[in-house]
Amino acid sequence: MDCKITLIPGDGIGPEIVREAKKVLDRIAEKYGHKFDYTKILMGGCSIDEYGVPLTDEAVAIAKASDAVLLGAVGGNVGNSKWYDVAPNLRPEAGLLKIRKELELFANIRPAYLYKELQDACPLKPEIIGDGFDMVIMRELTGGLYFGKRHTEEVDGVMTATDTLTYNEDEIRRIAIKGFEIAMKRRKKVTSVDKANVLDSSRLWRKVVKEVAADYPEVEVTDMLVDNCAMQLVMNPGQFDVILTENMFGDILSDEASMITGSIGMLSSASLGKTKLGLYEPSHGSAPDIAGKDIANPIATILSAAMMLRYSFDLDKEADAIEAAVAQVLKEGYRTVDIMSEGMTQCSTTKMGDLIAERV
Ligand code: IPM
Ligand code: MG
């Protein structure tokens, strides 16, 4: 199979982890007889340095013309970076929001499961971990607060900032359908998360999710308020299968869900729309404090590459091979520093990539 892949190394640890994911993909291509053509584009702070904007239209066009996009991470330290004393639409993260919108990637899938080998890294008590957990957060990605109108102005001499949270029923319906579809392939449980005791957008969310649920009688659906969900994640994570939620709630809950797996460095994500073109990225950020030290965990990006093979190219066998190689390396006791524990063998970013590629 011939596939055109856009690579976005981005900022911070992005270039290191994307390099390792490409190493694993190259091994897959060699072993299974595929041809992956890569085109690199700039996004985030590196694009600001080069072009003055976080993502150029030319770069978007390249991404649109490819079969899939693999991203490392974008952004620097908010607060002390030269990239942040500018309007919000010129900051590194705006590049990410722009590519999601331009590619119409409204559905963000973030799996969070606990590897048996990493139970020691899980911050929860053994009695809470129980038999472990395996959930997917289905986050709406192109609506809500992140894309609503915003402005800052002086009102009666007082600085006032406004963000707007808008959803229409079509936006809710299409993400709900994705959530139920994925639940059908899993344990058939959807927890729809909102703040319907306060927000109008959440009340519409609940109504539309209920309508969609009628088409999936086999799926058990529960509504849960977002504050309760944040608590349930650390009290009884095993109860969740698919968490279906809007953009900002999903942003926050997915960091929480990933952290209880032991390390945010393990979790992949896929952003999908109506077509096969998807964007795949680790759930974690650019970790500027450890950039360039060859200590970052590349596993989340490598697993994101596996999701790319599965969802954009339908290469399930190849995706399985990557996932099995990751599990094997963990079983053999190799760990990057973020998931290191006693008796294990610590390894660098590069070494981890080598080990996984070798076991593919
Ligand atoms: C994420 C990130 C982004 C988001 C930021 C960088 C804009 O936190 O992918 O979760 O909030 O979507
Ligand atoms: Mg986030």
Summary keywords:
360 residues; 12 helices; Isopropylmalate Dehydrogenase; alpha/beta; binds magnesium ion; binds 3-isopropylmalic acid
Overall, the morphology is globular
Sequence stretches where pLDDT stays below 50 over 5 or more residues: none
Query: In total, how many domains does the architecture comprise?
Result: 2
- N-C termini distance: 18 Å
In helices, the fraction of residues equals 25-40%
Q: Which hetero compounds are present in the coordinates?
A: 3-isopropylmalic acid, magnesium ion
Overall mean pLDDT: 96
Q: What is the name of the CATH architecture of the largest domain? A: 3-Layer(aba) Sandwich
Rg, alpha carbons? 20 Å
Number of helices: 12
- Strand neighbour order, sheet with most strands: 2-1-3-12-11-4-5-10-8-9
Sheet with the most strands, sense and barrel status: 10 strands, mixed
Enter the CATH topology name of the largest domain. Answer: Isopropylmalate Dehydrogenase
Could you give me the name of the CATH homologous superfamily of the largest domain?
Answer: Isopropylmalate Dehydrogenase
Strand-residue proportion: 15-25%
Q: Kindly state the number of beta strands.
A: 14
Order of helices and strands: EHEHHEHEHEEEHEHEHEHEEHHEEH
